[in-house]
Amino acid sequence: MIIKKIKLENFTVFEDQQIEFDPGINILIGENGTGKTHILKVLYSACQSIDKKVSFPHKLVLTMLPDDYKISRLLTRKPGNRTGIIRIAAGESEMASERVLKASFNGKTKKWEADVTGEDGWEESFSGLSSIFIPAKEILSHSYNLNAATEKNNVRFDDTYLDIINAAKVDISVGRNSASKNAMLRRIQEMTHGTVVYDAKRDEFYLKNGSSRQEFNLVAEGIRKMALLWQLVKNGTLEKGSVLFWDEPEANINPTYISIIVEMLLELQRQGVQIFISTHDYMIASYFDVKKQAGDSVVFHSLSHADGTDIIYYDKSKTFDNLKNNVIITAFNELLNEIYNLGV
């Protein structure tokens, strides 16, 4: 599956926005409140709805958690009666014809009961697709009984957290690992100094090194995030044709690991994984420009508030430096100016 484009009308911060995506790596940057994570969650919900048991709008509210699970609360907060429209186009390959999944809703829509078209073709074309969303905050250390507690309303986590725990528990890999996969696993192990073990009886994850194992909650969060990536690669979740969404991969990560994360993502792209990440980090964005090779497919998408208004301005480029309204570079340059002025 390749997600080709999304069109959002009257949805959260977007009044009318269309974005065309790259079949490789899509990097969303922008200031807070410009809808980066919202786009990732909408696309992820659409990917999950290839399962006949999963309704797109229902998954969307479980992923975004509006009050009382009302999809109408995802409408743009503007005066007047509005209709929210989500339209996502995808194909089995870059050149294949598109399938379109569309949902529309308004202020009178009950709960998640949006009008949906294109579901049958969507499920047919992309059956068996693997998609995963890695949240900004690590969650495997909180896996114990979390699904049951959420179902009983004792705690409240959106579905991206619950789904990532379930994905990490199940091994869907088939046959022997490829040489590139083994190389990737070894590279991550150099950072984590161990491998991931799931204890089904305890419903807990551990980091294993030799004959000893350490509780996940006793491991530094940055190491836990890298261990999660190891587990997803190892268990077959990130294979050719799958889609990876990663919200702020740089969060709580040692800066020395950033270049390795970028290399891992570029390698996954070479193996046929479509990737969407959101970031505020200058290093990770710049490393994509530095590390990509001929044939690698990377596009930067910039979202910003136009002239201090609520209107979202959009731009895209194949290089980080050429983005207009690049808030990361602007902030970085301001920092350099302040450092320079200290020495004057």
Topology diagram in text:
Elements: E1 2-11, E2 14-20, E3 25-30, H1 36-48, H2 56-64, E4 83-91, E5 99-106, E6 115-117, H3 119-125, E7 131-134, H4 146-151, H5 159-169, H6 179-192, E8 195-199, E9 204-209, E10 212-215, H7 221-234, E11 243-247, H8 258-270, E12 274-279, H9 282-291, E13 298-305, E14 312-317, H10 327-342
Parallel strand pairs: 3-12, 3-13, 7-11, 11-12
Antiparallel strand pairs: 1-2, 1-4, 4-5, 5-6, 8-9, 9-10, 13-14
The CA-CA distance between the termini, in Å, is 55 Å
CATH architecture of the largest domain: 3-Layer(aba) Sandwich
What is Rg?
A: 20 Å
Strand content: 25-35%
Structural class: alpha/beta
| Poorly predicted parts | none
The percent range for helix content is 25-40%
Secondary-structure element series: EEEHHEEEHEHHHEEEHEHEHEEH
On the 0 to 100 scale, the average pLDDT is 88
List the total number of helices.
Answer: 10
CATH C-level class of the largest domain is Alpha Beta
Q: What features would you highlight for this structure?
A:
25% strand; alpha/beta; globular; Rossmann fold; six-stranded mixed β-sheet; single chain; 2 domains; 344 residues
